[in-house]
Design goal:
The protein has one domain: Uracil-DNA glycosylase-like domain (Uracil-DNA Glycosylase, subunit E), CATH 3.40.470. 41% of the residues lie in helices and 10% in strands. It is built from 10 helices and 6 strands, in the order ααββααβαβααββααα. A 6-stranded mixed sheet has the order 1-3-2-4-6-5, with helices on both faces. A hairpin with a 4-residue loop joins strand 5 and strand 6. The radius of gyration is 16 Å and the shape is globular. Mean pLDDT is 86; it is low at 134-141, 145-150 and 212-230. Bound molecules: uracil.
């Protein structure tokens, strides 16, 4: 099967998903979209009101900024793949709950396994924390926020720096919605996109296929503890 067919099959599974209560309150799932052959995948947080209404990621103000940032480095949303940690909208656009992230994560991991991007750009701290769980402990200290368990990661420390693991190349970015409200973050995200352009002009370390994520049922995570540290 081609990537698109695998993604369609996964999308149908997500449409039937009731792993958490958001599966009942959503209007549409926001599965993700873009070029499944792209080397670059962006992972945001969760659908908001407008995304929920039409089932597409990043269609509001944050999405417009994302489009502009992509355009500035010669990319378009059609040339990359864009998804979210959560496929369903949390009511009132509240932050994702740890149990929702946990319930939805197998869908994202499967999506990543299908697309096999060379680089995953996490948008905001929730996406970073969620993907960070895949990091070996040796990669963590550099970005640690010094949390009690020593396993936490700070977006302030990590943004704009490539995190290379055996499994993924993660490039943490601030969330465009945060950048909309804070001029200093807007400047940082612009600089980080310029770094991304530079990174994409060089060969990326390959992701080893034997380390592809296995799809597992939702499990207990320590995400809640990590969230408290931001
Ligand atoms: N829209 C999305 O699809 N994801 C976000 O994280 C924010 C807005």
């Amino acid at each position: 099967m081609e990537k698109e067919e695998h993604l369609e099959e996964l999308k149908r599974r997500v449409e039937d998903c009731r792993n958490c209560p958001l599966g009942r309150s959503r209007k549409y799932i926001v599965f993700g979209e873009g070029d499944s052959e792209s080397q670059v995948m962006f992972v945001g947080e969760a659908p908001g009101y407008y995304e929920d209404q039409i089932g597409k990621p990043f269609v509001g103000q944050a999405g417009k900024l994302l489009d502009n940032l992509l355009a500035e480095i010669g990319l378009s949303r059609q040339s990359v793949y864009i998804a979210n940690i959560l496929k369903c909208r949390p009511p009132g656009n509240r932050d994702p709950l740890p149990e929702e992230i946990n319930a939805c994560k197998p869908h994202l991991m499967k999506q990543i396994d299908i697309i096999q991007p060379s680089i995953i750009c996490s948008l905001g701290r929730f996406a970073l924390i969620s993907l960070y769980k895949g990091l070996p402990s040796s990669g963590r200290e550099k970005f640690s926020s010094g949390g009690r368990d020593g396993k936490s990661i700070s977006i302030t420390a990590a943004h704009g720096k490539l995190i290379q693991t055996e499994k993924y190349n993660i490039f943490p970015l601030y969330h465009p919605a945060a950048a909309l409200h804070q001029p200093t973050l807007l400047q940082s995200i612009k600089e980080d996109f310029a770094k991304l352009k530079e990174l994409l002009s060089k060969p990326m370390p390959e992701i080893r296929p034997d380390l592809k994520t296995k799809i597992k049922p939702p499990e207990k995570t320590d995400t809640e503890e990590q969230m408290k540290l931001f």
